[in-house]
């Protein structure tokens, strides 16, 4: 079993290089970075329908325990600026931000779909309309998912306050935030792995989603420690230091998502080879 795991790990490592996943992740990170700040504006505006922007900003402070401090500071700063904007000017800004965010995010999702097709050995056979609908649906689902997660995280303390103002309930609410976030991330990634690549019926998606989410938490915390204690991005890049850290973190996150797809693909390939071997059939290369 250990030998089989080692061979699978080596196969995944080789395919990461052969499929240029780091380069694909860089393209997705560029479009994500380009649309991040308009997306924050749009998310804050939409979240105002469920809770107050000030509550969202307050809950975002918890991100500093998971993501690098520079990343959290940049996101919170932009969110605070949007929350402090007059209500009269927020509507037009939100519409513009939502449009720009959707355009940029859809380009990023489109690049991610190409990467998923590469990971799953799938040939893109969907027509332009079908592919555009899938891309926009995944983009909108991502935006709505972020809003819902932030709203849930913000509302959990209020819900548990119903049972009393005991400190125990507040601690339970704080601890539940992260399982809720992790479960939502696993579900969201599973949907991306299921509907993103072409012809994904019958493919595995849950194992890679769970692994990617757990690995993302570990890498984010590790990168945060590295940036805080060892790296000197601010000294090297000056005022752009926080931006560079944010871009690096997005690139790492995207790479982990693609890695999860490769894990799913390897599990599927091993299952296909095992089934073919039991039936005495030589499996064809790829399964997309």
TrEMBL record:
Keyword Aminoacyl-tRNA synthetase: no
Transmembrane segments: 21-50, 90-110, 131-163, 175-193, 205-227, 239-261
Membrane topology summary: Multi-pass membrane protein
UniProt-recorded name of the protein: Ribonuclease BN
Subcellular location: Cell membrane
InterPro entries the record matches: Virul_fac_BrkB (IPR017039)
Pfam family, one: Virul_fac_BrkB
Organism in which the protein naturally occurs: Haematobacter missouriensis
């Amino acid at each position: 079993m250990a030998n089989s795991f080692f061979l699978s790990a080596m196969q995944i490592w080789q395919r990461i290089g052969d499929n240029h996943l780091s380069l694909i992740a860089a393209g997705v990170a560029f479009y994500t970075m380009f649309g991040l700040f308009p997306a924050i504006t749009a998310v804050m505006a939409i979240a105002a329908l469920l809770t107050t922007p000030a509550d969202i900003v307050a809950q975002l402070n918890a991100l500093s325990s998971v993501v690098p401090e520079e990343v959290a500071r940049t996101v919170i700063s932009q969110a605070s600026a949007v929350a402090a904007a007059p209500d009269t000017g927020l509507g037009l800004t939100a519409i513009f931000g939502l449009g720009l965010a959707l355009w940029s995010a859809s380009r990023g999702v489109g690049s991610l779909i190409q990467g998923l097709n590469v990971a799953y050995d799938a040939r893109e056979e969907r027509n332009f309309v079908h592919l555009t609908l899938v891309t926009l649906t995944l983009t909108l689902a991502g935006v709505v998912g972020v809003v819902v997660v932030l709203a849930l995280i913000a509302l959990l303390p209020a819900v548990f306050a119903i049972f009393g103002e005991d400190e125990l309930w507040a601690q339970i609410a704080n601890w539940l935030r992260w399982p809720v976030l992790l479960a939502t991330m696993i579900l969201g990634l599973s949907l991306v792995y299921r509907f993103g690549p072409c012809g994904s019926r019958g493919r595995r998606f849950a194992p890679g989603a769970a692994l990617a989410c757990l690995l993302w938490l570990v890498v984010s915390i590790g990168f945060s420690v590295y940036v805080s204690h060892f790296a000197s991005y601010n000294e090297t890049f000056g005022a752009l230091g926080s931006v560079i850290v944010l871009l690096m973190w997005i690139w790492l996150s995207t790479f982990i998502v693609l890695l999860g797809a490769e894990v799913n693909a390897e599990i599927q390939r091993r299952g296909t080879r095992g089934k073919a071997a039991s039936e005495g059939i030589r499996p064809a290369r790829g399964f997309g």
